[in-house]
Amino acid sequence: MTNATTTPREHATTGSRTRWGRIVLGAALLEALLIVAAVPLLGFVANPLAPGAQNASGDYTIFFVSVTVACFVVGALLGWWVARPLTSQLALHGALTGAVATAIYLAICSIPPTTIASVVAAYGPFWFFLANGLRIAGATAGAASHGRRRRVA
Length: 153
Known about the structure:
The chain has 153 residues and is an all-alpha fold. The protein is 71% helix and 0% strand. The chain has six helices and no strands.
């Protein structure tokens, strides 16, 4: 037996449809928030992305740890936001939000004069892949936790 009273709006939020608009908006907000958080941070720590910084002998650990933690936390917040109106496929929407945000970040990194390779070299492969992986993991965890909270309440 089907529910004939379901409106198209309710079906869009409760069905198994992927909400690409919300995913892309969440990913863009995720990257914007990370930029807003990271730019002021550069005033307090050595900037590994500055020209000639790869040859400098500074310790960039505080910067890398801060950016990596921010990627996870902001990813979790926006993953939670993307999953708010959904009733199913929460983790999928979170993972897609993180993946689209990572694609946006890679696109930003490819704007000349920089390249993705130069950004990976500045961060080092460990920090670069950890930060980007935690962006996706954070968005997935945030979306999934929203579903757990709703089931408990």
